[in-house]
Design brief:
By secondary structure, this protein is an all-beta fold. The protein contains two helices and 39 strands. The strands form seven sheets. The protein has a 15-stranded mixed sheet that branches. The protein has a four-stranded antiparallel sheet with strand order 18-17-16-39, with no helix packed on it. A four-stranded antiparallel sheet has the order 19-20-21-22, with no helix packed on it. The radius of gyration is 25 Å and the shape is globular.
Length: about 600
């Protein structure tokens, strides 16, 4: 820490009726101190930990480190090490300005995604990545850069081909970057040689340069950062930022949230939170104080793979713990009377595993908290009049715990914000004509809270973007012929935003890849016989993208592993007797 404090002392010196139901957004004027924006070059700085009143570093609920400037994963805690190469892939995230109030010393926000070596407990740091900067006027600037501390960052130039020598970059661009020591790779060698490379697959350019830099080789990290100017900038709202294809020294870093994860809490009140890593080599960072991941839905054992809940005609409940098309283990959970229905699957208590929400024909409501195929505990939620039905579940306030959306026969809507089986707060959302139905939930705008996908009997389709018990905004998607139905929602391209799977009466199937209420792209999956149905979506192979679980009327069951609108591969789960059905109502 002495080296880090010395470093910082040095730096500090240097048109539908439905849509009308959502309330208008309130925009108050920005109150700012009279400080001009600093130069665009910033210091992508070493880790700065936050400390509690007892002088000890703060820790998150899952034992993550807490920092004022980093969020993501870092490995290595010593003053020297042997980390000689690191790489990753990512997508440049859109930056939205956040008014943090009078505490923000600048009229802008900033966020960066990068890979680096050093800087976890040392002041040396060699790194490269992208930057998303946005002023209070709302016009973002996107750049790519490298940096070797104590020097400032330098924007990339001389990319190939020559027509793209300025290294252009835009939100959504698919990027990859690597840095590797090529000679004299011993800690703190003053003649250490490095090669830094970056590629923008979307724009079609590459960049590579060689450098000499003395490194401790003490750590490797993959970070979403609030950069340092004359002080730490307030982090921009970047939504969700996926980090994938992560390597260190040519292999998987085997990342662990409790051992390597870092939560960002910047001085202006901004938060960024890493989600659990998938397969130890990919993860998502979410803007906000909690991680909401659309990837590991109905994951009963917190391994980053979706699992399958079954029920037979006698009320027997079973869980299959999955990895790809392999059933790692299966177990009976219990037998439940036919008067009870499984009406939701979501992590209601925030322990990282999905739970089961039950309701009986008299309105009694209860939860089973699962650990794999075991019920670790259960609790009653209460009795709700049967005029009210559970219309959806979702994490509507972004606290990492599932919530419940209720609707009665008159169209009245209400939200229960939950903490396990306890109702933290509840509120009415208004009345929606019965011609409209909630046909899906998902985080369509990538802001860390679940949204509602609506459709009416004429085919009009719209999204409500929720913030707790408030509809922050709403938007129409358009009118889709009623021969088409929403078959499922899920994050099919791994960008942290939910997408929509459509199917028509003839079996034609299509995908809309979404960004809020905008359709980024669409693609057909072909015609699948109507004897087959999509019974669930989930990330069954742990690659950060939702897959499709199919079943036919004879009990044959299969998974399509997806990458956007492309089917990467398929696998059979075999034939399961039709007395057993996949439980997917309101499944996360």
């Amino acid at each position: 820490m002495q080296k880090l404090r010395a470093y910082w002392s040095c730096v500090l010196v240097g048109g539908l009726a439905l849509l009308a139901l959502g309330p208008a957004q309130m925009n108050s004027p920005m109150f700012q101190r009279n400080i001009s924006p600093p130069p665009r070059h910033s210091a992508h700085a070493p880790l700065i930990l936050r400390y509690g009143p007892d002088g000890k570093p703060l820790r998150g609920r899952r034992n993550q480190s807490v920092s004022t400037n980093w969020s993501g994963y870092a490995i290595g805690t010593g003053s020297t090490g042997n980390y000689t190469s690191a790489s990753f892939s990512w997508r440049v995230q859109s930056a939205t300005y956040v008014n943090y109030g009078s505490s923000n010393p600048y009229s802008f926000n900033d966020s960066s995604q990068w890979v680096g070596i050093g800087g976890n407990v040392t002041s040396d740091l060699i790194q490269l990545g992208s930057d998303s900067y946005v002023g209070s006027g709302g016009t973002p600037i996107y750049t790519v850069w490298y940096e070797m501390l104590p020097a400032d960052s330098i924007n990339l130039t001389n990319c190939a081909p020559a027509s793209l020598s300025s290294c252009p970059v835009s939100p959504g661009d698919a990027m990859s970057a690597s840095l590797s020591c090529t000679a004299n790779c011993t800690p703190n060698n003053s003649n250490m040689k490095w090669t830094l490379s970056m590629m923008n697959s979307t724009k079609g350019w590459t960049w590579t340069e060689n450098f000499t830099y003395q490194s401790s080789l003490s750590s490797a990290e993959w970070i979403e950062e609030a950069p340092f100017y004359s002080e730490i900038a307030a982090i921009a709202n970047f939504g969700t930022a996926p980090f994938s294809d992560i390597l260190v020294n040519g292999g998987s870093p085997d990342l662990s949230l409790s051992a390597d994860g870092i939560i960002l809490q910047d001085p202006e009140g901004g938060f960024a939170t890493p989600c659990e890593a998938f397969n130890g080599n990919r993860f998502v960072v979410a803007f906000g104080a909690t991680c909401i991941s659309t990837f590991d839905s109905h994951d009963f054992n917190d391994d980053g793979h979706s699992d399958i809940a079954w029920r037979d005609g006698s009320g027997d409940i079973a869980v299959w713990l999955m990895s790809n098309t392999t059933v790692l283990s299966s177990g009976g959970v219990g037998t439940v009377a036919s008067t009870w229905s499984l009406v939701g699957q979501r992590d209601f208590n925030g322990d990282g595993t999905a739970d089961l929400l039950w309701r009986d024909s008299s309105g009694n409501t209860a939860m089973w908290f699962l650990n794999g195929s075991e019920v670790s505990s259960s609790a009653g939620v209460g009795n709700v009049p049967t005029a009210w039905n559970i219309a959806a579940t979702g994490d509507f306030n972004g606290d990492g715990m599932g919530d419940i959306l209720w609707r009665d026969g008159s169209g009245d809507l209400a939200v229960w914000l939950m903490n396990g089986a306890s109702v933290l707060s509840s509120a009415a959302l208004g009345n929606v004509p019965s011609t409209w139905t909630v046909v899906g939930t998902g985080d369509f705008d990538g802001n860390g809270t679940s949204d509602l996908l609506w459709r009416d009997t004429s085919g009009n389709t719209a999204i409500w973007f929720l913030s707790g018990t408030q509809v922050s905004s709403s938007a129409a998607i358009g009118n889709i012929p009623t021969t088409w139905s929403v078959a499922a929602t899920g994050d099919l391209n791994g960008d942290g935003k939910s997408d929509i799977l459509w199917r028509d009466n003839s079996g034609n199937t299509a995908i809309w890849l979404m960004n809020g209420a905008s359709i980024l792209s669409s693609g057909g999956l072909g015609n699948i016989p109507t004897t087959w149905s999509v019974v669930a979506t989930g990330d069954y192979n742990g690659d950060g993208k939702s897959d499709l679980l199919w079943r036919d009327t004879s009990g044959n069951t299969a998974i399509w592993f997806m990458n956007g609108a492309t089917v990467l591969s398929t696998g059979s789960l075999g034939n399961i007797p039709t007395s057993w059905t996949v439980q997917s109502t309101n499944a996360e």
